[in-house]
Design goal:
The structure is a single chain. With about 425 residues, the chain is α/β, with parallel strands linked by helices. The protein folds into two domains: about 90 residues, Roll (Urease, subunit C, domain 1); about 290 residues, TIM Barrel. The chain has a seven-stranded mixed β-sheet, with no helix packed on it. Strands 8-9-10-11-12 form a five-stranded parallel β-sheet, with helices on both faces. α2 runs parallel beside α3, α5 crosses α6 and α6 runs parallel beside α7. It is globular, with a radius of gyration of 21 Å. The N and C termini lie far apart (about 50 Å). Keywords: Hydrolase, Metal-binding. One of its GO terms (molecular function) is isoguanine deaminase activity. This is Cytosine deaminase. Its EC number is 3.5.4.1. InterPro entries: Amidohydro_3, Metal-dep_hydrolase_composite, Metal_Hydrolase, Metallo-hydrolase_Enzymes.
């Protein structure tokens, strides 16, 4: 049977497949496997007709744990004027104030999720800009979208506002309650402020009082003097905060003194902090100066973190907005680019987990490890080893959800033209 032809449902067994050995902790690059599919789940033994897959790589469907669905696909009306971080901040702020109606946010969220679904993603955590009055618009839209997509993509949302907004008797408290009502995650962006410690303590208390997990945007800069990551770890340890903690970006760690960075990562491990790296967006923004070649990649110290037992994931981050002009919520692209940017090859064999099972575990999404009883949510690639996988974009991949191959037709950008024209 042709590689690209699978039954539209029912019971069948995929024979002559390989899966990355790192998914199960085995040695080597790949393990031969036959995958039985029945009732939308991975079975324990062969069933139905056998389909020879010719040695093709089978992966668990992806988890994209750091995205910005509310910002996505605004580039045509709100492009970054100079490609810098500040250019992104100011441009997004102006566009949000002018254009982010419920209809606008909903249409762009749905468009982005259709892309992610077609590419093979099964779970997404998005950050939601949550300064008033936008929070009253975007959070209800998120809840509606989550309900619409519940049978296709698991969705979580984290509020996004700066650490300067985190203080008692402020709108932040109402935002935290809104997060609780939406089953969300408490988030903030940290940067050096004189009373950072007090604000972090209040942030963690607010989360603990409401039984919320937390997700930080941290030190997204090449300035080695920006060191809020250590403050987060120290405060979490001092307060004995025991709910899951995620930190994203952590760019400046890579340009700090080695002894300082090592101690910071030791504290992260002690605090039980997980990290998510966003290599494509950070390469776009970091070390950008007009007329000057960038001097560094913008990626954090993922190898050193992983060696300490810190859970490390990779994710898409922004898509076609001022923070990143490109991207399509395609985790296969993230996997390929992260491997090159962070030199994941010639390294630990289990990095593949950082794109599916590790972020799924960190976020608390349902299990996805190709084990019997797991949903048959698969990405099947016409490649037999890593070099074949990474040499091409795998645009002919097969995505299987609940045991059925899906239509991978991507939405047309023209669908969003009316939003750009109205703006």
């Amino acid at each position: 049977m042709d590689f690209r032809t699978l039954p539209a449902g029912g019971a069948f067994t995929l024979t002559n497949c390989v899966t990355p050995s790192g998914l199960s902790g085995a040695d080597g690059d790949f393990l031969p496997v036959d995958l039985a599919i029945a009732d939308g789940k991975v079975g324990a033994e062969a069933t139905g007709p056998e389909i020879d897959m010719g040695g093709s790589i089978v992966l668990p469907a992806f988890t994209d744990m750091h995205t910005h669905l509310d910002k996505g696909h605004i580039w045509r009306r709100a492009s970054n004027p100079d490609g810098t971080f500040m250019g992104a901040l100011t441009t997004v702020g102006a566009d949000r104030e002018a254009n982010w109606s419920a209809e606008d946010v909903r249409a762009r969220m749905d468009f982005a999720l259709r892309c992610a679904y077609a590419h093979g993603t099964r779970a997404v955590r998005t950050h939601i800009d949550s300064l008033a009055p936008q929070d009253a618009i975007s959070w209800p839209v998120f809840r509606e979208v989550r309900e619409d997509w519940k049978d296709r993509i698991e969705l979580q949302a984290s509020c996004l506002l700066t650490i300067e907004a985190v203080e008692p008797d402020s709108p932040f408290v109402k935002t935290a309650d809104r997060v609780v009502d939406s089953g969300g995650v408490l988030g903030t962006v940290t940067f050096p402020v004189p009373d950072l410690k007090q604000r972090l303590e209040f942030f963690f208390r607010t989360a603990a009082d409401r039984n919320l997990v937390v997700d930080f945007h941290v030190d997204e800069t090449g300035d080695p003097a920006v060191r809020t990551l250590r403050s987060i770890a120290e405060t979490a340890i001092e307060m004995k905060f025991d709910a899951p903690i995620v930190v994203g970006h952590c760019c400046s760690l890579a340009v700090q003194e080695e002894d300082y960075a090592d101690r910071t990562m030791d504290l992260m491990a002690e605090a039980g902090i997980a990290v998510v790296s966003l290599p494509m967006c950070n390469m776009y923004l970091q070390s950008r100066e007009r007329g000057r070649t960038p001097r560094w990649r913008g990626v954090t110290l993922v190898h050193e973190m992983k060696s300490r037992g810190i859970p490390v994931s990779f994710a898409s981050d922004n898509t076609r907005d001022p923070f990143y002009a490109y991207g399509d919520l395609d985790m296969m692209e993230v996997l390929r680019e992260a491997t090159r940017i962070a030199q994941l090859d010639h390294s630990d064999p289990d990095w593949i987990r950082s794109f599916n099972t590790t972020p799924s575990d960190v976020c608390g999404f349902s299990s996805q490890a190709l084990e019997p009883g797991d949903p048959a949510d698969l990405v099947i690639c016409n490649a037999r080893d890593w070099t074949e996988l990474f040499a091409r974009p795998q645009s002919d991949r097969i995505v299987v959800r609940n045991g059925k191959p899906i239509d991978r037709t991507l939405p047309d950008y023209r669908e969003l033209d009316h939003l750009m024209e109205d703006a």
